[in-house]
Design the sequence.
């Protein structure tokens, strides 16, 4: 039996070169869909918590012009929002606009924004073009410590942004956003300076350490048809530019716009506002094929523009000036490969009266300034490496429309970020390609979309989520150049943000499993060895199972019964992956049934039969990113470590996790640094080693015993090689794995003592300072310590800091799990369990939840950041103690 569960998620892969274990992080759909990687999930959650300034800061990390993008972004984040499979997508773009307007209103009195700028590098970069791509790159490069000069041919920066109708993007909003983005940075702007005329390109190459070409597509095209030279024929670009500059232009009563893209739509809407009574848009594409965004087409039609699909212009007719336009029927706009190749039926024609014709059929670039430079072109565009955006000439890069063709503002911003990273690497002598990849979205056919909707519907029922109407922006009734939409208020913004489902930001799994085919009678032997046939359905396991508490469809006893009546069917579903392996069922079973061992065996069968982890497949990855670095990257100044010693500190995967979760700013490496500070404070210089590996917990609990035992053998050899007799852990899961599973693998033959850091420090004179006002905290008992019966040591150490420790309803032996067994399960049940754990902490009156396991920290922090109502802070025990030294 072969089974492959399709992937409906987007992933980013992290792996460590010396560990047979990788992490697939599920990237929220909204974040994955954003070309610039803006954390929409993050800032929407902050808005729900009324943390508007923090939301603005998060947006600014990837979007230098939030007010602009809040109005003009084509919001692929919304088109991919998972909520859209349930009722309607979250109005993410409107929330971005709200945050930008809130910042503008509340921060006007302050000059500049807080930003971290690196030390001056002494390097100079020339940027040609002050559009979204060029300005984004300039901001990134200046923030990186380089001196930047921007050369712009127009009299003002942001020329392409100024072509957007004022009713969509008011000029005061644009100017204020640009000013804020550039304020305080070492960027010189030279407007009215055309490269090739006012300054030579070769002079820039000599004077600057690197050059970025981001000139965009500056001019519009006219189709080569009869009558194109008549008076009254314009390109859409020239029309929009004239209007932007405030020039007085008269087009008559009837105008025909030729083209089906966003520029054609913009031109038509501008013409209406200039007083043209009869505006027609004619294009060769069918309605569903139009490149213009559907919502913009609908807006255009609602304002009174007439749309004619599947017609191609034949000729423009008139005596000296435009009088009418003749069209022929377009029978197909694209060939079987999807290439633009229109075919016409000349026998079917249409004529429209017109006083003017506006062509919106593409744009072109003037690259004459690059003649003789050696920079290669292809199809009127600059040829670049698609990953690094490097051109054929050393130190010359290109970004934006001049590379990809006419694109969107957010795509230009994405290119600016990517070009800036490449240039910064180039200037620092770093490999331009290392640990980088291009974003891609997996294709989702109708069948896949239906499965996503069905799966989400089940999750919504489980979590009690009801349909909620999406925020509707209020539109003015009068056609004018005033802002089309009214601003939204705080309450509206918070209500809309609360609709966000806070899609999981991580799902992790071991994948390099070396499982061998199992014997045919493996299931029978598994039932016998785990005594699953001894289950009498008393229900005690279900009563204490945290997963069953939130999902009535799951119960250990039900799994037992299914195993006895056709157990192979278990391998086809998700049940064996829903279990968080907390061990509560084993502890309370009166007949000694080993449910945990049974689940492990089933998982081993599943993996050996190529039945992949739920929701994972290579085709679903967003990208692959190899995380480099060593296991001791956390070691730095201010702490003392050694190669040998009586005490060994096992840091586990902290250095690895710090890189994986760098976007969450968890600073997991600080846990290891804090541990060594505490050990140093009691006179211990611990032995550490770059040769240690992952403890192997997740490999074992996925059923890969062979790989686990390889890791165990290696780690014990490393530790014994240091001369240590005591091994100290800051991860409860690592401690439990060593104390129980390593000893089992070595058949008890281990002359080593394993201790959690709280146990080790408990009888030591640790010089801890008492806090001022007594902070109220509570402690989450991790499964690793609970299964070892370690309850008092962490509490004793917490109380030594002078805080007030309160207990949650479920603590010590009765403590509930954080919802995830390592990183093997992370479904809706886990989310509900985590949220309930946070509520328990708040009900206990605590402002902070202390954890003694980095994985609990990762999972509970995820739940905190995703929950709009939770205000409780999560802090690691070791970090808390070290902060009071």
Sequence:
């Amino acid at each position: 039996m072969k089974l492959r569960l399709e992937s409906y998620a987007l992933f980013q892969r992290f792996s460590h070169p010396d560990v047979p274990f990788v992490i697939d992080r599920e990237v929220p759909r909204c974040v994955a869909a954003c070309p610039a990687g803006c954390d929409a999930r993050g800032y929407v959650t902050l808005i729900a918590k009324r943390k508007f300034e923090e939301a603005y800061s998060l947006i600014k990390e990837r979007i230098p012009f939030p007010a602009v993008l809040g109005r003009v972004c084509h919001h692929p984040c919304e088109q991919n929002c998972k909520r859209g499979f349930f009722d309607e997508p979250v109005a993410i773009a409107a929330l971005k606009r709200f945050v930008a307007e809130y910042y503008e209103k509340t921060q006007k009195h302050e000059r500049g924004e807080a930003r971290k700028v690196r030390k001056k590098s002494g390097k100079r970069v020339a940027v040609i073009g002050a559009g979204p791509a060029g300005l984004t790159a300039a901001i990134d490069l200046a923030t990186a410590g380089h001196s930047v000069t921007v050369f712009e041919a127009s009299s003002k920066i942001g020329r392409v942004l100024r072509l957007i109708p004022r009713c969509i993007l008011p000029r005061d909003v644009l100017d204020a956003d640009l000013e804020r983005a550039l304020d305080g940075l070492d960027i010189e702007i030279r407007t009215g300076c055309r490269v090739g005329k006012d300054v030579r390109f070769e002079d820039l190459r000599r004077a600057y350490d690197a050059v970025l070409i981001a000139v965009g597509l500056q001019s519009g095209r006219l189709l080569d048809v009869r009558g194109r030279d008549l008076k009254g024929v314009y390109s859409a670009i020239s029309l929009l530019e004239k209007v932007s500059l405030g020039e007085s232009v008269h087009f008559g009563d009837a105008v025909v716009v030729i083209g089906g893209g966003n520029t054609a739509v913009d031109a038509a809407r501008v013409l209406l506002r200039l007083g043209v009574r009869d505006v027609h848009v004619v294009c060769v594409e069918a309605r569903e094929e139009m490149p213009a965004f559907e919502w913009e087409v609908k807006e255009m039609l609602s304002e009174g523009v007439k749309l004619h699909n599947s017609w191609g212009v034949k000729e423009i007719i008139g005596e000296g000036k435009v009088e009418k336009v003749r069209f022929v029927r377009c029978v197909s706009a694209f060939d079987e490969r999807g290439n633009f190749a229109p075919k016409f039926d000349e026998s079917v024609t249409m004529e429209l009266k017109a006083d003017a014709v506006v062509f919106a059929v593409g744009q072109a670039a003037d690259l004459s300034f690059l003649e003789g430079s050696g920079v290669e072109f292809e199809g009127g565009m600059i040829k670049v490496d698609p990953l690094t955006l490097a051109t054929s000439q050393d130190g010359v890069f290109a970004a934006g429309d001049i590379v990809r063709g006419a694109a969107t503002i957010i795509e230009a911003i994405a290119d600016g970020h990517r070009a800036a990273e490449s240039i910064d690497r180039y200037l620092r002598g770093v490999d331009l390609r290392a640990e980088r990849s291009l974003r891609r979205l997996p294709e989702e056919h109708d069948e896949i979309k239906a499965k996503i909707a069905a799966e989400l519907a089940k999750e919504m029922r489980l979590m009690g989520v009801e349909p909620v109407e999406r925020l509707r922006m209020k539109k003015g009734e009068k056609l004018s150049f005033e802002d089309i939409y009214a601003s939204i208020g705080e309450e509206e913004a918070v209500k809309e943000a609360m609709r966000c489902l806070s899609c999981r930001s991580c799902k992790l799994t071991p994948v390099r499993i070396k499982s061998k085919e199992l014997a045919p009678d493996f299931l029978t032997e598994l039932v016998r060895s785990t005594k699953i046939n001894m289950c009498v359905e008393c229900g005690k396991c279900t009563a204490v199972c945290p997963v069953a508490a939130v999902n009535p469809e799951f119960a250990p006893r039900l799994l037992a019964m299914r195993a006895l009546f056709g157990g192979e069917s278990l391998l086809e579903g998700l049940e064996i992956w829903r279990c968080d392996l907390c061990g509560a069922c084993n502890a309370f079973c009166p007949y000694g049934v080993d449910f945990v061992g049974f689940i492990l065996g089933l998982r081993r069968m599943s993996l050996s039969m190529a039945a992949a982890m739920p929701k994972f497949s290579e085709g679903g990855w967003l990208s692959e990113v190899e995380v480099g670095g060593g296991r001791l990257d956390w070691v730095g100044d201010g702490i003392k470590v050694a190669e040998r010693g009586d005490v060994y500190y096992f840091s586990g995967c902290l250095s690895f996790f710090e890189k994986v979760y760098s976007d969450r700013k968890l600073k997991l490496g600080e846990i290891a640094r804090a541990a060594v500070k505490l050990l140093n404070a009691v006179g211990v210089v611990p032995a550490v080693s770059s040769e240690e590996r992952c403890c192997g917990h997740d490999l074992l609990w996925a059923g890969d015993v062979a790989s686990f035992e390889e890791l165990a053998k290696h780690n014990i050899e490393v530790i014994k090689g240091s001369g240590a007799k005591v091994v100290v852990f800051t991860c409860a899961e690592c401690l439990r794995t060593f104390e129980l599973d390593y000893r089992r693998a070595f058949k008890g033959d281990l002359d080593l003592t394993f201790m959690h850091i709280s146990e080790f420090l408990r009888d030591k004179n640790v010089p801890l300072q008492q806090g001022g006002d007594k902070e109220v905290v509570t402690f989450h008992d991790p499964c690793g310590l609970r299964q070892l019966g370690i309850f008092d040591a962490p509490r004793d150490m917490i109380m030594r800091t002078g805080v007030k420790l309160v207990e949650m309803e479920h603590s010590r032996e009765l403590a509930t799990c954080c919802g995830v067994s390592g990183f093997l399960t992370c479904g809706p049940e886990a989310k509900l369990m985590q949220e309930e754990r946070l509520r328990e902490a708040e009900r206990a009156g605590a402002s902070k939840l202390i954890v003694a396991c980095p994985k609990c920290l990762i999972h509970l922090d995820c739940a905190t950041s995703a929950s709009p109502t939770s205000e409780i802070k999560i802090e690691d025990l070791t970090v808390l103690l070290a902060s009071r030294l």
